[in-house]
From TrEMBL:
Signal peptide: 1-24
Record carries keyword RNA-binding: no
Pfam families, A to Z: DUF8200
Species for this entry: Sphingomonas tagetis
Protein name: YARHG domain-containing protein
Keywords, in A-Z order: Signal
Length: 103
């Protein structure tokens, strides 16, 4: 039993993370974290409705390209500290290019 303790601990940590991932996934396909908390609880870009809470805005999947969705979010809420698509975060260079659109 002692041999399995590290394995059990690792499995428990994954179980603890699963609810957080499920909440993020059910909240939206896109997630944009602004440097400054958005002033509004929601906004619309083209045909996509974004909902914001605790500084993070989420939106459902859109037919637009991922970089376009990031740029639209930047246009509405300003410079982003993070942007993810389907749970995968933009790398630093891609996020920097997206933020170049900030007003």
């Amino acid at each position: 039993m002692i041999r399995f303790a590290p394995l059990a601990a690792a499995a428990m940590s994954l179980v603890a993370l699963a609810p957080a991932a499920a909440v993020a996934q059910s909240s939206g396909y896109y997630a944009a974290t602004a440097l400054e908390a958005p002033k509004k609880a929601s906004f619309v870009t083209q045909n996509t409705i974004w909902k914001c809470k605790d500084g993070v805005c989420v939106a459902p999947r859109s037919p637009s390209q991922d970089k376009v969705m990031c740029e639209r979010a930047v246009d509405r809420i300003g410079t982003l500290s993070a942007f993810s698509v389907g749970g995968a975060a933009f790398d630093a260079a891609t996020l920097e290019a997206c933020n170049a659109r900030a007003r």
